[in-house]
Amino acid sequence: MGRPNADSSGDETISEALTSGDADELPPEDLARRVFDVSPVSTVVVDSNGWIAYANERATETLGASREEIVSWRYGAADWRIYDDDGALIPVEEYPVTQVLETGESVFGFEHWLERPDGSKRWLTLNAAPLTNEDGEVEYVVVAFEDVTELKRREEQLTSEQMRRVEFRTDELTVPPSLRVDTGEWRIEVESVVSLANDGATVQYMGTSDLLAGEFVTAVEEVPHYVDVRLLSTSDGYSRVEARSESTTVSEVFQSLGGHPRAVVIAHDEVRFLGVLPGDVDPRLAADGIREFHPDVELVSEDLVYSPDLLYDVVVDELTDRQFAALEAAYFSGYFDTPRTSTGDELSDRFDVTRQTFNQHLRKAQRAVLQQLYEQSGSTAR
């Protein structure tokens, strides 16, 4: 939709004035016009009806259109689309130009995606300020903006190399009676969740210093998900258990999103689920997953922390799923401890494979780890 023709009997439009060769008729002085046009900051001038009246040279580069095209655009028209960071279309009433026209106040630091005529999208940050007449009415809005798409992409790349610590809370009544706390709080560490098969069965390794060993086993047995719980060890007041689950649990929500659970904290009036997610994963996805178990759960905190590439990441890439599961289960079940708290027969039973098959998975996993340590990653450190 093109802009309407200007009334020949009316005042000269700002577009005509700014491009006029007669310095005496320019609204600003000639120097100001020239400075405006060569400014390294993309700038457009919008009239009170939302039509773009003028654009400087930098704006044509940022918007990917000629001046003739730009001055035919109108904020809020059907073909003018700007989006927020989630990809949702921003309503016209939230546009910075709309806000300035309605309030007469400047808007700073507004960020959005803009779809250009060629279909490409650019991430812009802008400031908008009113230009008023003698009566204080807004005649024009001056919009200065920058293309920060590359900066946005670098931030996203940095975020993807970070991990996001998250914490969710829900009502205390969702836990078994044996886990309800009158005062203080109990913390149960979720050490690992190992997938056993494609049918969704897992073995989860947990520990706590806040419950006696027998109380801990009883409490975990009361959780409906778990069908087989056994005490692995008790040392210096810290008890560890292994629990088999044949249905999905809250802990698996974190793993399904590329993260891992950290702990469950139980207080007298709430339960908190602590976990870690990749930096580029929206915590709301985890909240949606946890709501399948606890409908009233809410996100209460999140914190980005740097996560460098570790031997763990390298090993995960090198091992098959079965090899990694065997190694993880062996470690967390105490197979490598002295004395052992789990035997090869017990672990092979967990995986429903023969002892020989389990040992093959475990030996291959151990060799891959040692190979990375001594022949790959470690060779550059020696």
Automatic annotation (TrEMBL):
GO biological process, one term: regulation of DNA-templated transcription
Pfam families in alphabetical order: BAT (PF15915), HTH_10 (PF04967), PAS (PF00989)
Domain PAS as annotated: residue spans: 28-72
Taxonomy, superkingdom: Archaea
Region (Disordered): 1-26
Matching SMART domains: PAC
Keyword field: Transcription, Transcription regulation
Domain PAC, chain residue ranges per copy: 108-160
Alphabetical list of InterPro entries matching this protein: BAT_GAF/HTH-assoc, HTH_bacterioopsin, PAC, PAS, PAS-assoc_C, PAS-like_dom_sf, PAS_fold, RNA_pol_sigma_r3/r4-like
SUPFAM superfamilies given in the database record: PYP-like sensor domain (PAS domain), Sigma3 and sigma4 domains of RNA polymerase sigma factors
NCBIfam families per record: sensory_box
Protein name: PAS domain S-box
UniProt source species: Natronobacterium gregoryi (strain ATCC 43098 / DSM 3393 / CCM 3738 / CIP 104747 / IAM 13177 / JCM 8860 / NBRC 102187 / NCIMB 2189 / SP2)
Lineage, top ranks: Archaea, Methanobacteriati, Methanobacteriota, Stenosarchaea group, Halobacteria
